[in-house]
Amino acid sequence: AVPTRITPSARSGREVVGMASMCSDNRCSESCTCADVRNRSKDDDVGVSSQLTPREMACATRDFATRTDAQTAALNERRPDECSRRPWPSSAQDDDTRGLWEDAGTCAVQTTSPDDCEMMVHRQATRDKGMPGDIIAALLQVASSVWSVRAQGLVEMTAFAGEEKLSELVPATLLSKVASAVLEKVSDPHYKVALAAMECVIALVLNSPFVAEPILERLVPQLLLRSQEGREITRTVAQTALRAVQTSFVPEVLFPILVRVMDVPAPRVRIGALGFLTACCLASPAYLSISQHLRSPFQKTLLQLREKNSELRRAALITLRALFDASGAIMVQQAMLLPVPILNELKAGMREVNCSSFDAAFAKPKLSNARTSTEPPMRHDPQFVGGRHAGGSIDSFDWLTPSKQSSIESLALTATESMQATDPEVAHVRLVNGVASSMSGLEHFNAEDWAAITPSLLRQLSGPAPSTNQRDALLKIQKLCFCVHQDAEIWSIHFEHVLEAILRSLQHEDPQIRELAISCCKDLLRAVPQRFRAFTEHVLLRMLAAGRDEVICVSAAAEEALELLLTASDSHRCMALLVPVVMKEGPPTLQLAVRLQSKLVNRFTQLQLLSILPQILPPLFEAFKNPNADVRKAVVFCLVDMYMILGEQLTPHLAILSTSQLKLVTIYIDRVRVKQ
């Protein structure tokens, strides 16, 4: 007996085939070939009578009646309007998804829309599998071809993203699928789906930033494009998502990503990235007060000034002003290293955005910060610790006037107080502030005054003096580098001794002393670069050793000093010194030496570079096999720089590389060509 509510005539050929497939069981007494029955079912909308023979129809009807008698009451209690006759899709390959669709198929009793089926799957997952099942069902909805279903799935994902301890409730592999699905739908052609995806991004970024971090570099360009669309609601939500990104991620994560985003060819993306970078600059002055953090955004933004797009150029100028407001004299110091034509272009551009203080910083060397007087001086500011101020010791200045001696006494007292701070960062800031406020008594020292006090400074650095006295001596030597002309007689007398005292301080147990010593060496390189030619090997090897320092700011400062040394020394000599280092040393000295070789390569002509290739390439090829990824990356960049100079003349020399290595080098060469 067939149930009155569920009859074969009301069902499609494919479903009856599903029932008829049970004929292979012993319950079927008639001879029936289930494969033949299944093959005849090709159209869900065609009736059973046109698909099956009478014999097969009778078999299927009897089997269906037998199988459903015990389930009819339970099936009728369910909501038939939420069910569908759709078979589970072929795209659902994993076991969890397949199980969800099979559970949904057991209650398929009436024909309804695909959207209702998706909702039914979600409810079944919630009932049976908990949150992971919910997310799987939402992922199925997001993959739908119907925009309303996609939007609904993203809305449900947004609710999941707001859950606490999401990482404990959901497997990491499933979370990565969620992030990828949301990233894909941010660029959905239907604006309501894109809005739902951006709302989900906001929830993920604010509540579970670890989920969004792996896709952040691909996500930010899409949000930047959406923030410039004509539809107001889309712009608003995209800007909210960008603010959430800025709030949830530290500058160490955001700034490198924005620098890479500015390599995108699309001007709209770069304009958006510059605007986002401007907002990040204003919120991260402490991060940008470190020279190595500022270098990449400053140089990348500076490149945008050469673009023909007026909007892009204007955005770059605004970002440069934000960088200057955040970093002050650090940016001035880096700008001073630019070629004169580029520096003049930068000054003219800064005048366009009413940044007169930037121009004034180059007017004359004076001991005032480019920031406002109310803003505290930042660590690593070259006009403070990293630059031109100096300290003093009372014992060394008995002959000074009372006004000068009182200022030095207060300076020494400030340094002593700073050493009593338990936090090294607090101690550093206190010392910097004290030095900055106490230097007025030393501003008017002339060359004769400095020549008189230099011997006592050297004694403080070489003898068993306390850290406070050594710090004071290094600060005074920085002041000496700033105030005394490079042709003064004091350099002929004391340069070698000053340099050796500074290099000896690189071995001090206090990392602040080591960092200050490197900063002092950089100022000495800027003040009298020609005098370093006789000591290139000694200084280069000592700085390479400092580059292995466990303290990041010390190793980074050592790399900056090495770059300055390369500009002041003979390129052939420096390359000859670096080749054995690349041959023998391991990380991190190895990648530092390779990076220095990359910088030297650009200073050779084609003929010069071709003549030294037999000496340079074998150690580089050996370093290319190093298990350290940073080393291999540095080698690739060095080979690319060589190719940019030599072109196809380098190709025969690369034949020794493996296929994968050669392919990697070719990829990066193509990228550089596109940028150029």
Automatic annotation (TrEMBL):
Gene3D superfamilies per UniProt: Leucine-rich Repeat Variant (1.25.10.10)
Gene Ontology biological-process entries: microtubule cytoskeleton organization; mitotic cell cycle; regulation of microtubule polymerization or depolymerization; regulation of supramolecular fiber organization
Residue intervals of the TOG domain: 120-359, 438-676
Gene Ontology CC terms: cytoplasmic microtubule; spindle
Basic and acidic residues: bias regions: 76-85
Family annotation (InterPro entries): ARM-like, ARM-type_fold, HEAT, HEAT_type_2, TOG
Sequence ranges of the HEAT repeats: 616-654
Cross-referenced SUPFAM superfamilies: ARM repeat
Region (Disordered): 73-99
Record keywords: Repeat
One GO molecular-function entry: microtubule binding
Protein's UniProt name: TOG domain-containing protein
Originating species: Prymnesium polylepis
Taxonomic lineage: Eukaryota, Haptista, Haptophyta, Prymnesiophyceae, Prymnesiales
